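Fold sample X.
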Amino acid sequence: MLENLEEIELIGLLNKAKEIKNDGYRVMQICATKIEDDYELLYTFGRGYDIRHIKTVISPGVHVPSVSDIFPAAFLYENEMHDLFGIAIDGINHDYKGGLYRTAVETPFA
């Protein structure tokens, strides 16, 4: 179990990201994991040696709002989630439209 893990509903993602940014954190990583028929999205933020995580679970086909306006570096992680899992991310600052990775199988982890 991760310390400092907060589970949120997707609708609260942008407000939570803004709150975390205002507290002086930076994005460290964003990842997706397929769990049964859904996807778990884990966002990790750091400030010095302090680390916070937020998690949300989405169903296939659900559109996720981009946090790249809040954390510009997030565009890489969001493009990765799209390319590898087929997760639709709306409003990515630099959207590679499925071309960040070259994979033998489209969305190999979907």
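Fold sample Y, listed below.
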Amino acid sequence: MGRMRENPRYNVISMRVSDEEREQLESLVRRTHKSVSDIMREAMEVFTLQLERQEMRKAA
């Protein structure tokens, strides 16, 4: 039985990428020593922040 986690993640999302995108992602994994999942979570966070900034600029 696995260890209990504070923030368990049960949802799995898969996506298709080109060979070049996969190489880019593998390079990021090697350079950052992070998992693909962690990199994708950070990318989603950065994208969300950028989108929120754009929306704030439009509303002003």
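Sample Y note: The chain is about 65% helix and 0% strand.
Also: The helical segments are 19-32, 36-59.
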